[in-house]
Amino acid sequence: MSGAPGPAAPPPDRAGPADRLGGALARLLPLLAVAAFALTLGATLAVAGDTLGYDFRAYWEAGVRVLAGQPAYDTSYQAAGGFGLFYYPPAFVPLVLPLALLPQAAAVWAWTALLVAALLGGIALLPVPSRLRWLTLLLAALSWPVLYAVKLGQVGPLLLFLFAAGWRWLERPGAVGLTGGLGAAVKLQPGVVLAWALLRRRWADVATGVFVLAVLAAVATAAAGPSAWSDFLLLVGRVSDPITTPHNFTLGAVAYQLGLSRDAASLLQWASMAAVALIAALAALRLPPVPGYLAALVASQLLSPILWDHYALLLLVPVAWLLSRGWWWAALVPLATSVVLVGAIPPAVYPAAFWVTLLAVVIAGRTGDAAAAAVSAVR
After folding, report:
1. Is there a contact between 140 and 316 (Cβ–Cβ < 8 Å)?
2. What is the pLDDT of residue 23?
3. Has residue 188 been placed in a domain?
4. Does residue 25 sit within a domain?
5. CA 246 to CA 266: how far, in whole Å?
6. 52, 73, 90, 307: least surrounded by Cβ within 10 Å?
């Protein structure tokens, strides 16, 4: 019997159990990430006790000294890690002076809130799909370096925000110069991204970074006096031993802790830093802007003579990029320093995490560049 065909039957549900489970997990990811972050951070701050704002109180005391007309630096310290040691660049002083006007307890909580806002803002700025930003927040919730940095009042979350903002607005002239200049004012290491800009001939970024540093340096000199610069150099030179500083996680320091002689450990450390500098320079010259920039980010920490464990929170930025490239194993980098592993993390995990991330960024950058060239050739 002929006639017009009836309506087409709806296609069968092709989603298998694994697909439906994956979809459900994707929908739950934001709730899971927020709940985990609130739980782990809240628990960390609740038990912090006198260690809450441990590092920030050194910043606050330096600001109080400057406001009282005293030197910003206490040059009596002999090693890094002691309570009250302020050995950040003088250009950082103007950024903490407003908080020095507050009582210490209020300043600690205001700073802690600022760090949490910077961390969340930095993750929100990451130019990756939203599901990966939620995943990054979940990884941050599980990361001991993240929780430890916030508890101590360390500047790491601020640097994460600046690095993320530089990546977000990488193509805007001057953006990397602004974020890199501010980062270098807080700690010297982020100035490596200005070297990246120089190698890339991004003159607007270089000029902006130099201008930001010059302005902050002038304000710092007016506030803390010219002697702040010589005090800073004296103190940094004394307390920045990359081998024997306690609780340091540079490659040379870890090797020394494992029994290598000091001379051999020093040689290993210098070789590591030279290799990092070479890799970062080649990445700046030969890779596309994003992986080159992220390589500079990782290199900025590996080139530091002091590598505290909480510095590893900055690896969340390149890990997010690797995840966006489909390199899912990269999630193991922050998971290797998870809060659930505290007390059982071998020291070697920290320099290994930085080195693995650096090499992964370079390899992924070269692979992507080759793939793009192949597509262009086919077209």
Report:
1. yes
2. 64
3. yes
4. no
5. 15
6. 52
Measured CA distances, 363 to 77, 283, 340 (Å):
42, 10, 30
Beta carbons within 8 Å of 100's beta carbon, 6+ residues apart: 60, 62, 63, 64, 66, 67, 107
Nearest Cα neighbor of 108 from 166, 160, 49 is 49
Q: How far apart are CA 111 and CA 154, in angstroms?
A: 10
CB atoms within 10 A of CB 7: 5
Instruction: Please calculate the CA angle 312-316-318 and round it to the nearest 5 degrees.
Output: 105
Contact 148, 169 (CB under 8 A): no
**In this structure, how many other beta carbons lie within 10 angstroms of the beta carbon of residue 126?**
24
Q: Which residue in 239, 305, 306, 229 sits closest to 73, CA to CA?
A: 229
By mean pLDDT, which of 14-28, 81-95, 160-174 is the weakest?
14-28
Angle at the Cα of 162 from the Cα atoms of 156 and 165, rounded to 5 degrees: 140
**Residue 199 is assigned to a structural domain of this protein:** yes
Mean pLDDT of the chain: 90
Which residues, 6+ apart, have CB-to-CB distance to 228 below 8 Å? Answer: 71, 72, 73, 90, 93, 220, 221
80 within some domain: yes
Each residue's pLDDT tens digit, 23-45:
666 789 999 999 999 999 999 99
pLDDT at 374: 37
Q: How many structural domains is the chain composed of? A: 1
Q: What is the pLDDT of residue 26?
A: 75
Alpha carbons 325 and 337: distance in angstroms, whole number: 22
- Could you list the residue range(s) of the whole structural domain that residue 102 is in? 46-373
Close Cβ partners of 137 (under 8 Å, ≥ 6 residues apart): 33, 34, 37, 120, 123
Dihedrals phi, psi of 359, to nearest 5 degrees: -65, -35
Averaged over 252-277, what is the pLDDT?
96
Looking at residue 14, its pLDDT comes to: 58
- In whole angstroms, what is the distance from residue 255 CA to residue 377 CA? 47
301 contacts 311 by C-beta, under 8 angstroms: yes
Closest to 253 in 3D by CA, of 373, 129, 80, 60: 80
Reported as a pLDDT band with limits 50, 70 and 90, residue 299 is very high
**CB of 112 within 8 A of CB of 51?**
no
Q: Which residues have a Cβ under 8 Å from the Cβ of 102 and sit 6 or more positions away?
A: 110
DSSP bridge pairs for 338:
143
Structure tokens at 174: 């001057």
